[in-house]
Structure formats: C-alpha cells, structure tokens
Design goal:
Distance between the termini: 27 Å
Strand order of the largest sheet: 1-4-8-9-13-14
Shape: globular
Number of domains: 1
Radius of gyration: 20 Å
Low-confidence stretches: 9-34
Strand content: 35-45%
Number of strands: 17
C-alpha cells in the first residue's frame, strides 16, 4: 500500500527548548505563575495480567511520526494517488480524501507502546505541503471517547486511535487492529474492541507554545499477526505533550 510515514526522534527536553522565555524572573507575582500550566513529562502506565508497566524515569517520548494514506480502498483497473497492487488490478483510495495520522511511541519497562491518532479528511479541508497536514487553526485532538480503528493500514475507512505494543519479557508484540494486508483474507471481528475504551479526559493549552497536554485513560485488546487475541491491557493512563494541530516535519515553520 502506498503510504507516507515520517518517524522522528523526540526527547522531552526538546519541548522545553522550544518554549522561549524572555521575561525577567518575577518572585512576587505568585498568582500569575500559578495560572500558567506547569510542564509535566510524558507518562504512560498500564497493566497486563495484573503486572504494572510504566514509562522510564525521564518520561520522554522515544519517537514520534506522522503519515498520509488513502481512504476507503476499493478494487480498480486503474491507478490513483493512493494505491496498492492486487494482481492485475489495484486497491485505490477515494480521489477526494486523505488519511492523516499522528503517532507517539513511548518506552515502558521492558518494551514500548505506540499511540496513533487517525483522522480522514476531504482534501479541501486539509493543507497541502509536501504532505497533507491539518490546518494550524484547527485542533487535531478532542475531548471524549475515541473509537479503535480496526481497519487501520487496510481499508482505512475508520477514524480514531490505534495501539501497538511490545513487551520483551513475554517476547510479544501486537496491535489493536489486524495487520493483514488487503490481499490477505481477514476474519478480524468487527466487535474485537467492543469491551475496550480510549478517552481523552483533559486538553490543557500550554500558553506561548503550539503544544497542548492531553491526559486520558484506555483499555484495549491486543492481537498477533494471525488475528489471535494474545493479551488485554487494563488500567491504562497516558499524559502527552503534543502539537495541538498534529505532528509535521517542522514544529516552527509549517
């Protein structure tokens, strides 16, 4: 499948470096200082079979990325902007639409966990640089519940969130969605995540920056490459300092 994805290395210190502070130190304006959101490091915690997993002490994002792909793939005899091959035919995405994703991956004890936020746009609703990107005057994240996108990197009809996880001590990696391609038969259940949840509980604007802090909770079923459920993550919590309009190649100029 034709898909553009950019992965970047990102440490929490980068966020601090991007916040320019030009005012003199003020020691007697307590109310003003308390009114400003306090920077807190990224954090993730969850349980698998009752065992807790958490981010490392620094709480840094280990990597981030963003990507584009097609929406609502269907079989066709001709090529399109977004396509993958299917023998003598092609899977092509809708001509007037594009999928944008913003991803954060964090180290946890003995592994890592990645969160990909997924939204489908009409091309008229999104800006075109060398990739398609959400406009900077619109917020990418929203309060409330997100659906798990079960057809992520497949048909790409669904929006919401996707999770991938690797836990070394049980020699396991898996995803919240099927990883079978469009050319592979899938029996992945449409109700695979009906007993799961993902919700952003807080969005806090970090004044003077293009960042917001999002906090939320999640539970999710994780599947292997054969679409077999192999574990369930419970009591999940996340806190992330993120670009309010989604990841892109430059935090300052795009």
């Amino acid at each position: 499948m034709k898909r553009y994805t950019i992965l970047l290395t990102f440490i929490a210190l980068l966020f601090a470096a991007s916040c320019k502070e030009t005012e003199p130190i003020i020691t007697d304006m307590v109310e003003l200082e308390e009114a400003r959101p306090v920077y807190l490091p990224d954090s993730v915690s969850f349980k698998v079979d009752g065992k807790p997993y958490t981010t490392d002490n620094k709480g840094a994002i280990s990597s981030l990325g963003f990507g584009n792909s097609g929406v609502n793939y269907r079989l066709s005899d001709t090529l399109a902007e977004w396509y993958s091959t299917a023998g003598n035919r092609y899977w092509i995405g809708a001509a007037d639409s594009v999928q944008y994703t913003s991803m954060y991956k964090k180290q946890v004890d003995g592994g890592n966990i990645g969160f990909t936020y997924i939204k489908n746009y009409r091309k008229s609703e999104i800006m075109k640089d060398w990739m398609y990107l959400p406009k900077k005057d619109t917020g990418f994240y929203h309060l409330g519940k997100y659906n798990y996108a079960l057809d992520f990197q497949r048909n790409n009809q669904q929006e919401g969130v996707a999770i991938e996880v690797r836990i070394d001590n049980v020699i396991f990696s898996g995803t919240s969605y099927t990883t079978k391609t469009l050319n592979q038969e899938s029996t992945f259940s449409k109700v695979a995540q009906n007993d799961a949840n993902f919700e952003i509980l807080k969005i806090i604007d970090l004044q003077g920056t293009d960042f917001v802090r999002i906090e939320g909770k999640f539970e999710v079923n994780i599947f292997d490459s054969s679409e077999k459920k192999v574990l369930r993550i419970t009591d999940g919590y996340f806190r992330s300092n993120v670009l309010k309009f989604g990841n892109r190649d430059s935090f300052w100029n795009k």
